[in-house]
Amino acid sequence: MTMDSENSQQSQPPVAFAPPSPQYSSPPPQKRPSGIALSALIVGIVAFLVGLVPVIGIVLGLAGIGLGVFALIKKQPKGLAITGLALAAVALIASTVATAGLGAAVDSVSKEVKKAESAEVVEEEPAKVAEEPAPAPTPEPAPTSKPESKPEPKPQFTMGQKNAISKAKSYLDYSAFSRSGLIKQLEFEGFATDDATFAVDNVQADWNAQSAKKAADYLEYTAFSRDGLITQLEFEGFTPEEAAFGANAVGY
């Protein structure tokens, strides 16, 4: 049995041991570039510090905003990029306001200077005018006294003339008369021929119009031919010319 156990031990192959497996370590994380974001932050800080300076703050603000946006596009550190972007935006607004205020102030000063210059010119012109001798006034001609016009004396009518004129006007108010017919009518009323004639000549009657009125009166109650109407008007004392005018006036 001893021999068998020894033989069996000798016949077993040796046990092989596997080598240890190699261990791999993960590579260290790569750092993202931050140059543009850092530049945006620096420019933003500088722009913020000089934001109240006209024009310069605007230029730096625009540059900081551009760098901040570009850094965000390149996925660089957001903290740096956003901070620089915000500072640059504030600087841009402040510098824009300061620039506008400066422009308004300059414009106001220039206007005041122009006003002062124009005022000086206006003050100098009256002085020059005052130095020139004024022309001697020309003597005005003495007013000539005009003779006072005396009112013309009103014509003095006799009692007979006044009444004859009044009677003639009343006749002409309701009827048509020729000159000779009106004189005869006044004589029939008892006025003297001189007073009747004077009255008829002073009533300022239009004998042509009286002829036309008389012709119309005749045609209202009877018919006349042209020649018959003219003859009738002449019988009333109208002249041939006045009678023809009356006939023409009524349509003949």
Automatic annotation (TrEMBL):
Residues 16-31, 134-144 have a biased composition (Pro residues). Residues 161-203, 206-246 form the Putative host cell surface-exposed lipoprotein Ltp-like HTH region domain. Keywords: Lipoprotein, Membrane, Transmembrane, Transmembrane helix. The chain crosses the membrane at residues 40-73, 79-106. Residues 1-31, 120-158 are annotated as: Disordered. The keyword Transmembrane helix applies. Residues 1-13 have a biased composition (Polar residues). InterPro entries: Ltp-like_HTH, WH-like_DNA-bd_sf. Pfam families: Lipoprotein_Ltp. The keyword Lipid biosynthesis does not apply. This is Ltp family lipoprotein. It comes from Leucobacter edaphi.
